[in-house]
Amino acid sequence: MITPKLSFEFFDSKVDYISGSVGLLSVLIKLYKETKDNDISRYIQNLTLQLISKKKEILSMDITYAHGCIGVANVFIKVYELFGESSPNLRATIDELHYTINRGYVVQMENNDISWCKGISGFLLYYSTYYSYFHDYKSKQKIETGVKKIKRILLTTGAKDDSLCHGNIGILDVLLEIKRNAYSDEALEFVIGILKDRIFDLYNKLEFKSGLSNGAYNTSLFLGLSGKQYIVDRINLSISSILN
User: Fold this and answer.
1) 116 closest CA partner among 163, 181, 180
2) What is the rounded CA–CA span in Å between residue 127 and residue 138?
3) Residue 27 burial (CB count, 10 A)
4) Prediction pTM value
5) Could you say which DSSP state residue 13 is in?
6) Which of 56, 179, 194, 230 has the fewest Cβ atoms within 10 Å of its own Cβ atom?
7) Shortest CA distance to 140 belongs to which of 181, 81, 171?
8) What's the CA gap between 187 and 154, in Å, rounded?
9) DSSP code of residue 72
């Protein structure tokens, strides 16, 4: 198996390089869990080391899941779960990112963006991964306060659209993952129920609200109509989340 060293020259920016590498790591981790292939293992660890060497750039990224350091930290935890201390400086990097994410969460809780890609739900998806592996009680508390915030917003203004990336479908996907990874309580089940009702109503009426100008006709997975079929299949067939 060829394991090339990724280079900045193939990307428009260092942020794109990091985001692309994180996406590749996520795919390789899932593939390794299925195959236990030693070449894939080495590729994961080498790519992780390359990313750790860019820690300064990672810490300067946005504190978001889809576009920033939260997504990087999340995949680092999964690498650590597989290989532990055999990846030099990985745990120290996770700890440093976790500290930065905790500070960002305090700021984010003052805002009303509850989306997965840029808002509160992205933090909660990360904390559910962190809690499931490190059993950190403070992370569980952050999930609880975040779910309550999402509940308040859904009962007042609601999410700005229905999409997997920015809206109700993505929020529901995150909450289902939290239920699987971390815990379940009355508030979480209540919000899951609200969102399920909304999405199944959309599905049955063939409706879709989107922030895109052509959202009602867009067929893409993250921003359009395909997201509806994905979340219905995720619920009915118990398929795994593509967000985590």
Assistant:
1) 163
2) 9
3) 10
4) 0.89
5) S
6) 56
7) 181
8) 12
9) H
In three-state form (DSSP H/G/I as H, E/B as E, the rest C), the secondary structure along 142-204 is HHHHHHHHHHHHHHHCCCCCCCCCCCHHHHHHHHHHHHHHCCCCHHHHHHHHHHHHHHHHHHH
- pLDDT (tens place) for every residue of the chain, 244 residues total: 444 454 444 444 455 778 888 989 999 999 999 999 999 999 999 999 999 999 999 999 999 998 899 999 999 999 999 999 888 899 999 999 999 999 999 999 999 899 999 999 999 999 999 999 999 999 999 999 999 999 999 999 877 788 898 899 999 999 999 998 878 899 999 999 999 998 888 777 767 777 666 666 778 888 888 888 899 899 888 888 888 8
Reference 169, options 111, 91, 117; nearest CA is 117
> What residue has token string 């609880």?
144
Reading the block at residue 230, the tokens are: 């994905």
Among 58, 176, 87, smallest CA distance to 128 is for 176
* Residues in the chain, total: 244
Q: Assess contact for 114 and 122: CB atoms under 8 A.
A: no
